[in-house]
Design brief:
434 Repressor (Amino-terminal Domain); DNA-binding; four-stranded parallel sheet; homodimer; Rossmann fold; alpha/beta; about 15% strand
DNA sequence: TTGTATGCGTTATCAT
DNA sequence: ATGATAACGCATACAA
């Protein structure tokens, strides 16, 4: 491949001039510049990225580490990062699906010297060491971190309050026996949503410990299975809060398969508000978070951190999680007979109205 | 940051020895090695990636260029690439959402010198120039290419036959008036699926030109709108083939909103078989493609190409697209009265059985 | 406006 | 087994 030297020789100039042409640094004689450009095109020359970053100590690349990469949520986060990165002339080095701290460490090391910053999603305890290590060299922005890291910016969704609002909505509708399908063990978002669920119950004077908690993993199948499990119980809950939309879809399927109608027989709320949520049958009431926006915001914070150097502060941003009411929860069930109906159906004790 | 020189000095050895320790090249004296490693750890040293790739001419990185990045399909492709890349100790440099050839060119240039190979999805005419340019330096693997490029491996889904099978299924069920919602203009997959649709019609002696073709863009909203459009016509079709599952979901929603039952009133088929397809209401009959597998296969081809150098041949692989029959198409409508029912409902001329 | 020379951090060749 | 040193391809301070 042609190097800067080849171009310089062919154009009869020094490599410094060629370099200047490609970085339009100092004013180069227009004639010289056009001749160099012409030769460069003919030789199919373009500056070698690795060499550039070695001298400039800039890679124009952002590292991105994700815990997982399935479903629309993560995909949207990447989309946001990708879009905003390009806007700032940065590329992204992606690495995902790390099951443990060891893998994260390896991935982090491989990125050293190749990135100007690292955007890391939902780091767990095992990843903190890697974060600290990387942080000594380049800025790190955390996405939905379990624990904040000194000197790192972070941006997170209001998982807790979003979940709380969703469940409060259910309670406001008259529901008292509400179950939840949780996300994967160890996932911060999942835990925060569970916490919001419990808080909403407690807020209403209900016993969080008495509520049915079905473990899930954010995938459709888990929601389906949870539905089957829930339906096997007596009495079954009048409403279910799924920790994400994917599981809500699975749950909806299980309910439909069992002949249950939503929201008439059982109300369902999800979380994430994926593109399909509004088009489900019934349209899913869920908590909307702007995954794409999260990625964009992370890049913005990163740009700031890169600009300000290692002295940059550590901003903590919170992105809203707002309840979007559609049709999967129906309206006030008090007095509609749903409570009795369900209880009677399950052969259990009739529950009170209030 | 500590460099190889710092470690060498602190350990009282030459930089060559430190390098050997980190590349366990030649046998280094165990004692020396452990001392070097100890010092390196203390100094938090790790080889600089940019410098490494400058000397070795290897970046251990694969470039990935995608036309879009929304929905589960692209996300799954990336997942497959990511997973398989890691298995081969490669990282991925991602770039997506290129609206035109100019952007592709810029993205391609930015990758020069930073990648050992490029995996490019669905390149259009405007991208071919970039492909050719990149190809002179590193191997290129094309995903679902519109036109094959000399010297490039490629792997594609059998879009055409998959679509053909889906529509043939509908025809086998007795449907004669089948509409299609297409993908975005210029998208190869979309065009191939449309071609398969038409072929299936022709195969059955039906007139492809007479079928309703509603333009779409792969997003849910387009499917919904298409549904509204279709329902406004008289007579409306007895079946609809959506070019992807996302639009099928939108269509299903429009149908439900209009009080139409699927498959009783109208049959629906999708394409992609996303994770949610089986959990929709009704479970969606669709054409299954292994997006994740596509990514993995691409990486495998890439590894082969990198091994064999520029002399490597250009393998062309086809991945199956198989029809998965679920419940959105129902069973044979001949004799069930659906044909007459529909025609009568629309106030149109009664169509014949055959 | 242009050229010379140095260094970026590493691997690899050739000695020792 | 280890060391000295030359690339790798480029940007840039300094000189002209």
């Amino acid at each position: 491949m042609a190097t800067i030297r080849d171009v310089a020789r062919a154009a009869g100039v020094s490599i410094a001039t060629v370099s200047r042409v490609f970085n339009d640094h100092t004013l180069v004689n227009p004639e010289t510049a056009s001749r160099v450009l012409e030769i460069a095109t003919k030789l199919d020359y373009w500056p070698n990225g690795a060499a550039q970053s070695l001298t400039t100590r800039r890679t124009q690349t952002l590292g991105v580490m994700l815990p997982e990469l399935f479903g629309e949520f993560y995909s949207e986060v990447i989309r946001g990062i990708d879009r905003q990165s390009r806007a700032h002339d940065y590329q992204i080095l992606l690495s995902s699906s790390h099951s443990n701290g060891e893998e994260v460490l390896i991935a982090g090391r491989a990125m050293l010297g190749r990135i100007d910053g690292l955007i890391m999603m939902a780091p767990d305890e095992a990843s903190i060491e890697t974060v600290e290590r990387v942080r000594r060299r380049v800025p790190v922005v955390l996405l939905n971190p379990r624990i904040e890291v000194e000197g790192c910016c972070s941006v997170a969704f209001e998982n807790f309050s979003g979940a709380r609002a969703a469940v409060a909505h259910l309670i406001g509708l008259g529901h008292r026996d509400i179950a939840m399908i949780t996300g994967p063990q160890g996932n911060v978002d999942a835990e925060e949503r569970l916490r919001g669920f419990r808080r909403a119950l407690a807020d209403a004077g209900l016993d969080p410990e008495a509520a049915a908690i079905i473990p899930g993993d954010f995938r459709e199948a888990a929601g389906y299975e949870a539905g089957v499990t829930l339906l096997a119980r007596r009495p079954w809950p009048t409403a279910v809060f799924a920790a994400n939309d994917g599981m809500a879809v699975g749950l909806l399927a299980a309910l439909a398969a069992a002949g249950k109608r939503v929201p008439r027989d059982i109300a369902v709320v999800g979380f994430d508000d994926i593109a399909m949520a509004a088009y489900l049958n019934p349209p899913l009431t869920t908590v909307s978070v702007d995954a794409c926006g999260l990625g964009q915001r992370a890049v913005d914070l990163m740009m700031g951190a890169i600009e300000s150097g290692p002295t940059g502060g550590s901003l903590r941003q919170q992105l809203p999680a707002v309840l979007v009411v559609r049709q999967s929860c129906g309206s006030d069930i008090t007095g509609t007979g749903m409570l009795e109906q369900t209880a009677g159906d399950g052969g259990a004790v009739r529950r009170g109205r209030k």
